[in-house]
Backbone:
């Protein structure tokens, strides 16, 4: 895909995010919007996947470790053809298969249920190790939050991945510098994230996570890196694409009202 085509897909994903959270009257738009470009590139360009065969044993795997940004994953999957885009309006509704956090038993394309912060990377590491033991060529991608990286289990998993030289694993940190209670440096900063991952024997790349050229180059470099896993520190803007949400911690976990929804969709339409 060209960058223009990817940008259009990312706009579709962002519109789906805002629509789903508005319909649910709850959810997490800020971190979903910051991660939209990363997920768009992974699902539309990078990963070896097939929506008509979501359980293909040779597919690449994706684990959304920061499971509360499920709206981003659901919108990406819907726009990629795993299920109808219209179903996004059922997010968090009673009886809907689109729960508040990803559910691998009921949602096509979800490789791992997640929600409790800090646990998803361990699952991704297990998948990567299984690929090595089974002599499979699939790759595993895990998306973490920067606030989530304050969890100790993240670093237990990183230690194992580095020690086992899991070069089929790519960890992407959505580094938007805001978490539920404020900025990273006000809460419990995990920085410097790059030096920490290097200490656990990762190849580390820092990029603008809202720039498709830099995302593409980093994932290419990760694929060419042998003998160690890769960590991509993706510097992003929380709420990216909606002016009144950008860099505003209050939009971590709040749904737009009707007026805000109309403004957000108008901005995304103009873009």
Residues:
């Amino acid at each position: 895909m060209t960058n223009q085509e990817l940008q259009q897909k990312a706009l579709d994903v962002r519109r789906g995010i805002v629509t789903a959270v508005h319909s649910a009257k709850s959810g997490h738009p800020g971190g979903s919007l910051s991660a939209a470009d990363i997920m768009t590139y992974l699902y539309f360009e990078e990963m070896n996947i097939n929506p008509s065969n979501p359980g293909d044993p040779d597919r690449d795997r994706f684990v959304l470790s920061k499971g509360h940004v499920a709206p981003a994953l659901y919108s990406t999957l819907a726009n990629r053809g795993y299920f109808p885009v219209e179903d996004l309006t059922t997010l968090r509704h009673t009886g809907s298969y689109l729960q508040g956090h990803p559910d691998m038993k009921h949602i096509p394309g979800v490789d791992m249920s997640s929600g409790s912060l800090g646990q998803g990377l361990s699952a991704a590491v297990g998948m990567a190790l299984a690929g090595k033991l089974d002599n499979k060529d699939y790759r595993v991608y895990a998306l973490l939050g920067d606030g989530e990286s304050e969890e100790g289990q993240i670093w237990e998993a990183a230690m194992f991945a580095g020690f086992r030289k899991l070069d089929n694993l790519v960890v992407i940190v959505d580094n938007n510098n805001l978490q539920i209670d404020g900025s990273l440096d006000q809460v419990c900063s995990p920085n410097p994230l790059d030096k920490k991952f290097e200490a656990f024997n990762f190849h580390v790349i820092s990029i603008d996570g809202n720039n498709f050229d830099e995302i593409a180059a980093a994932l290419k470099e990760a694929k060419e890196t042998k003998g160690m896993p890769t960590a991509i520190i993706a510097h992003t803007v929380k709420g990216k694409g909606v002016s009144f949400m950008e860099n505003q911690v209050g939009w971590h976990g709040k749904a737009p009202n009707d007026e805000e929804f109309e403004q957000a969709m108008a901005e995304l339409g103009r873009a």
Summary: The radius of gyration is 17 Å.
